[in-house]
Design a protein that fits this description.
By secondary structure, the chain is an alpha+beta fold. It has helices at residues 21-29, 44-52, 106-120, 135-143; strands at residues 12-15, 53-54, 63-70, 73-82, 89-97, 125-131, 147-154, 157-165, 184-185.
Length: 192
């Protein structure tokens, strides 16, 4: 179980639920470059899906859609799945910064704190999928220590499955990634 209060020492964290959809949408709308690589732009329906979708064989209780705040300003959002695809791996389904905080190493600082916390609770690895065609995302995640394990097709897009090893193992275990990404919308969100 992840204690979101330990994800950052600098920013206040809170769970973003369906009541946060407009706030999440505002942050997404402020990042049009991210959506250049998608078929659709940010919308309330897409945000509701992001707030409720989980990978296969996971439960909504393992999903932490977290807002990082400086006072009342939403600095970043992160969708963090506990124990996917294995119990000792955390999965970042989404990470986005407030445009006013970009280019200042704040995103890297947030990732560093999240990594340190996840390592402290025994996670061996963090996984995520990067849009192959998005050079900014590719640069950000590689700069933050994520190694590409392979490619998958997801809804007509090629994504790079990447991992950052936290345990004292030499490299991410490439045999444990799935060739297809799929998420399921959950009807019930106990965090709402």
């Amino acid at each position: 179980m992840i204690d979101i209060s330990n994800l950052s020492s600098k920013y206040k964290t809170r769970i973003m639920d369906l009541s946060s959809a407009e706030e999440v949408l505002d942050l997404c709308v402020g990042n049009p470059q991210f959506y250049d690589y998608y078929k659709t732009g940010p919308s309330k329906d897409n945000v509701v899906y992001a707030l409720t979708a989980t990978p296969p064989d996971t439960d909504i209780k393992d999903k932490y859609f977290v807002g990082f705040y400086e006072e009342e300003t939403l600095v970043a959002i992160m969708d963090l799945i506990d124990g996917y695809p294995r119990d000792d791996i955390a999965y970042i389904g989404f990470f986005m910064m407030n445009p006013s905080y970009q280019g200042k190493q704040i995103g890297t600082a947030i990732i560093d704190e999240v990594v340190a916390y996840l390592k402290s609770i025994g996670m061996s690895e963090i996984r995520l999928a990067i849009d192959k065609e998005n050079p900014q995302s590719n640069h950000f995640w590689k700069k933050n220590g994520f190694e590409v394990l392979g490619e998958v097709e997801d809804d007509g897009m090629t994504k790079l499955v990447a991992a950052r090893t936290l345990a004292d193992t030499p490299e991410p275990r490439k045999k444990f990634f799935k060739k297809k990404l799929s998420f399921h919308k959950k009807e019930k969100n106990p965090q709402a």
